[in-house]
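Supplementary Methods. Inverse-folding protocol.

Structures were first reduced to a discrete structure-token string of length 182. This string, shown here, constituted the complete conditioning input.
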């Protein structure tokens, strides 16, 4: 492997730890609170994806398969993950909560809800046991919406859960919470 290839691979490997910091921006304006990924996280994701594209472009000459895998993966992240992070947020005000992650969007008015159930389960993920949050929004009509909050990718929603439940309780909603045993 040439020196330039080693530098690019080192840059990619050195960039990985920033994604485990899970930085969430909490912005309060009046009665409205917005939770979203920090702008630097979005920029860093774009930078690492662009570096992967460049590394794949150079690597494809020597190691064709790995070069194209890196190139394709970088393009995929640039076209899906980066825009998805940009539009991801949880917005909470006295009347409603809305959550969007990528192209998934949920909108709940507190007046339309009968209860919110929050459960935390310990699930094995990637060789470790992680707390996974589950939210069940039950409308007055009986319709239930289940949301699984992923431990790292939905960190902004995980940070917003206490405020969602607090606002719901202020509106007189029944909110239940169950923590994992042990």
């Amino acid at each position: 492997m040439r020196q330039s290839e080693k530098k690019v691979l080192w840059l990619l490997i050195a960039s990985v730890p920033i994604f485990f910091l899970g930085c969430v921006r909490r912005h309060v304006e009046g009665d409205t609170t917005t939770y979203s990924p920090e702008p630097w996280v979005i920029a860093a994701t774009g930078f690492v994806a662009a570096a992967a594209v460049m590394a794949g472009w150079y690597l494809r000459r020597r190691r064709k398969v790995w070069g194209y895998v890196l190139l394709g993966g970088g393009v995929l992240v640039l076209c899906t993950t980066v825009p998805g992070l940009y539009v991801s947020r949880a917005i909470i005000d006295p009347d409603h909560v809305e959550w969007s992650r990528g192209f998934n969007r949920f909108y709940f008015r507190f007046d339309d809800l009968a209860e919110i159930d929050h459960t935390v389960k310990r699930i094995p993920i990637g060789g470790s046991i992680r707390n996974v949050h589950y939210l069940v929004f039950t409308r007055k009509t009986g319709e239930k919406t289940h949301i699984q909050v992923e431990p790292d990718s939905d960190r902004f929603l995980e940070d917003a859960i206490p405020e969602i439940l607090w606002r719901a309780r202020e509106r007189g909603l029944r909110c239940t919470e169950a923590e994992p045993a042990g």
